[in-house]
Amino acid sequence: MGTMIGVMLLLVVFVMPLAWGVGARCDLYNGSWVEDESYPLYDSRSCPFGRKEFDCLRYGRPDTKYLKFRWEPAGTCNLPRFDGVKLMRTLRGKKVMFVGDSLTLNQYISFLCLLHAAVPNATLSSSSDNRSLSAVTFEDYNLTVMYYKSHYLVDIVKENIGRVLKLDSVQIGGSIWLTADVLVFNTWRWWLSTGSRQEWDYMQDGDRTVKDMNRTVAFSRALATWANWVDSSINSSTTRVFFQGISPDHYRGTEWGEKGSTCEGETDPSSPSAYHGGPIPQVAIVKQQLSKMSKPVYLFDISYLSQLRKDAHPSKYNGVKFRVDCTHWCVGGLPDTWNLLLYAALVHSI
Ligand SMILES: *[C@@H]1O[C@H](CO)[C@@H](O)[C@H](O)[C@H]1NC(C)=O
Ligand SMILES: *[C@@H]1O[C@H](CO)[C@@H](O)[C@H](O)[C@H]1NC(C)=O
Ligand SMILES: *[C@@H]1O[C@H](CO)[C@@H](O)[C@H](O)[C@H]1NC(C)=O
Ligand SMILES: *[C@@H]1O[C@H](CO)[C@@H](O)[C@H](O)[C@H]1NC(C)=O
Ligand SMILES: *[C@@H]1O[C@H](CO)[C@@H](O)[C@H](O)[C@H]1NC(C)=O
Ligand SMILES: *[C@@H]1O[C@H](CO)[C@@H](O)[C@H](O)[C@H]1NC(C)=O
């Protein structure tokens, strides 16, 4: 009898938390948005890291309801409440690096604002040594948070024929990424760019050099190169690796049942039953790639929860573009939830 109870206790103490963390009953990424009066998590107007791209309140966004939604996972699990001081204690003496495009910058700025709100009088130092790397150090915790701009993750090299996108090499970024203890990667959006926004003239994969190719195929080749780099270069006992997942945009109103409209003027999230956009195809490529890796990489599967947030984009309330921006996200806003998920993974291991 004593043994039985012992076994049951063991089950409760050790097996239950595991099941709670990773079991099917706790899918953090399926759920819905609920209004929460305690939101937003900080006042973006007192965040010293605000950027004109994302600072919707400063650029005249009149409605603020979009700040008041909390992501509620379906089933039995909850996202833990964000505790910035706890996060900084966990990360004391460490370097956190966000690597990717402007959607990564979106998450980086939100991360800085969340930390700053927890310790508004903290001693900060910041640096931006060159165009691709910027950093902020919270001196009291010796915690450095960095953003490394990389649209494709793989290298772009200037050669005689022009700028060559090397689908099989991540040497340039790789040496810098290795200096971090926590890495958050993302790429996809720029793979679609053409014309003057395309940052390369040729693509090269091994001894094959081409003027262009199917962009989804090129993306998956680059992702495989990145995955090989992680598998061969990362020491999992010292470095945690995350992938941000694919952030959706809102230019096609049919996805949420409003033909012809964009995110402009939207003030409410979609309910799960009203959203018809379907999964983003590249997410399956990311998942498949991650499942083949030998090193653990945690995927922030943020696509679906973000798809429901047609209301969370800067739209015309930003300081850089004259066009309506339904690609990036207001900060504060949706990227704070992406960081709640990062927090849950780093501090609570879920
Ligand atoms: C979320 O869960 C519901 C109920 O199990 C399911 O019908 C739906 O397809 C799920 N949605 C996603 C995006 O996984
Ligand atoms: C701060 O952290 C770095 C590693 O990121 C370490 O090398 C350094 O010694 C630490 N400084 C202090 C004052 O603890
Ligand atoms: C930060 O400093 C201000 C002014 O010195 C002070 O009023 C405020 O209480 C401090 N906040 C915290 C959280 O220490
Ligand atoms: C940018 O900064 C990184 C890290 O400090 C350094 O390795 C790299 O050489 C710098 N690049 C340029 C062009 O200065
Ligand atoms: C590119 O490749 C993907 C994956 O193989 C395929 O689904 C898609 O139809 C292709 N696109 C074009 C324009 O050929
Ligand atoms: C990984 O890091 C741990 C802790 O610092 C160290 O003991 C181990 O030797 C490292 N492994 C490799 C393969 O470098």
Automatic annotation (TrEMBL):
Where does the record place the Trichome birefringence-like C-terminal domain? Answer: 79-344
The protein's location, in the record's own words, is: Golgi apparatus membrane
Q: Which membrane topology term applies here? A: Single-pass type II membrane protein
Q: Where is this region: Disordered?
A: 255-276
- Quote the cellular component terms of the Gene Ontology held in the record: Golgi apparatus; Golgi membrane
Q: Does the keyword Transmembrane apply?
A: yes
This protein's major location comes to: Golgi
Give the signal peptide range. 1-24
Of which family is this protein a member? Belongs to the PC-esterase family. TBL subfamily.
Q: What is this protein called?
A: (wild Malaysian banana) hypothetical protein
Q: Which organism is it from?
A: Musa acuminata subsp. malaccensis
